């Protein structure tokens, strides 16, 4: 999400807005920013149902994943605001026209792509989360395209021991997000993986999202400097 505050020094934004935060909000934001993961993301290909889209965003945000990538080759990614409950204001959603474009972007940023494929030989628990990882999940009905499966660095499955052999897409994404985030934090030995500059930018953004009239407050602060 972008605003006029994006061009302002984030340290100035934080100083201007901190006095206007509700009691306990600064501490909540600080804990959230400290636990944010930039080295783990979800890549969703051709999602159809807006309710599933919203549920995926909520799971990603709840487990501290900062960015969700979406491929819109078949249709535009949409999400239900009733289900998302406003979580999108805390997230970044990166949109790509094709899987190839998404893969190029992620590979260029150092990410490995792990594709969720039923009956794959590798289990979710066996994946390496010590490096930046993008988990690739497909359409609710068709699953991942052949291009996405072939373009992934590894393919994995969520082990199931019941008679049910598949999960709802949003449920599968939640399991993957929780497990991946837990594994990455455990591997790194720390709550989050953002550097100080990224944490400062995110802190300023969260302050702005938490204070009504943030842009006007920052403008007044700048005018009195």
Give the name of the CATH superfamily of the largest domain. SPOUT methyltransferase, trefoil knot domain
Which shape, going by the Cα principal axes?
Answer: elongated
In N-to-C order, the SSE pattern is HHEHEHEHEEEHEHHH
What does the radius of gyration come to? 19 Å
Global mean pLDDT: 92
What is the quaternary state of this protein?
A: single chain
**Main beta sheet strand tally, sense and closure:** 7 strands, parallel
Q: CATH class of the largest domain, anyone?
A: Alpha Beta
**Neighbour order of strands in the largest sheet:** 3-2-1-6-4-7-5
Q: What structural class results from the helix and strand content? A: alpha/beta
- Helix content bin: 40-55%
Strand content: 5-15%
Brief digest:
43% of the residues lie in helices and 14% in strands.
Question: What does this protein look like?
Answer:
The chain has about 220 residues and is an alpha/beta fold. The chain folds into 2 domains: about 1-35 and about 195-225, no CATH class; about 40-190, 3-Layer(aba) Sandwich (Alpha/beta knot). Helix content is about 45%, strand content about 15%. It is built from 9 helices and 7 strands; from the N terminus they run ααβαβαβαβββαβααα. It has helices at about 10-15, 25-35, 50-60, 80-85, 100-110, 145-150, 170-190, 195-210, 215-225; strands at about 40-45, 65-70, 90-95, 110-115, 120-125, 135, 155. Strands 3-2-1-6-4-7-5 form a 7-stranded parallel β-sheet, with helices on both faces. Helix 3 links the parallel strand 1 (about 40-45) and strand 2 (about 65-70). Helix 1 (about 10-15) packs across helix 9 and helix 3 (about 50-60) packs parallel to helix 7. The longest helix is centred in the C-terminal third of the chain and has 20 residues, at about 170-190. The radius of gyration is 19 Å and the shape is elongated. The two termini are about 25 Å apart. The model has no long low-confidence stretch (mean pLDDT about 90).
């Amino acid at each position: 999400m972008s605003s006029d505050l994006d061009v302002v020094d984030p340290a100035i934004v934080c100083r201007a807005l901190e006095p206007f935060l509700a009691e306990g909000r600064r501490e909540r934001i600080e804990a959230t920013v400290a636990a944010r993961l930039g080295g783990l993301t979800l890549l969703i290909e051709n999602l159809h149902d807006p309710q599933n889209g919203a549920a995926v965003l909520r799971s990603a945000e709840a487990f501290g994943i900062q960015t969700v990538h979406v491929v819109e080759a078949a249709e535009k990614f949409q999400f239900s605001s009733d289900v998302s409950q406003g979580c999108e204001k805390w997230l970044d959603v990166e949109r790509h026209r094709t899987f190839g474009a998404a893969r190029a972007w992620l590979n260029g940023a150092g990410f490995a792509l792990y594709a969720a494929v039923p009956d794959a030989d590798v289990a979710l628990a066996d994946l390496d989360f010590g490096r930046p990882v993008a988990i690739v999940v497909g359409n609710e009905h068709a699953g991942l395209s052949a291009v996405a499966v072939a373009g992934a660095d590894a393919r994995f499955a969520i082990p199931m021991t019941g008679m049910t052999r598949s999960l709802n897409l949003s449920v599968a994404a939640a399991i993957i997000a929780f497990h991946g985030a837990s594994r990455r934090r455990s591997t790194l030995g720390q709550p989050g993986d953002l550097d100080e500059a990224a944490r400062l930018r995110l802190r300023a953004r969260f302050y702005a999202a938490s204070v009504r009239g943030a842009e006007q407050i920052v403008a007044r602060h700048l005018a009195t400097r």
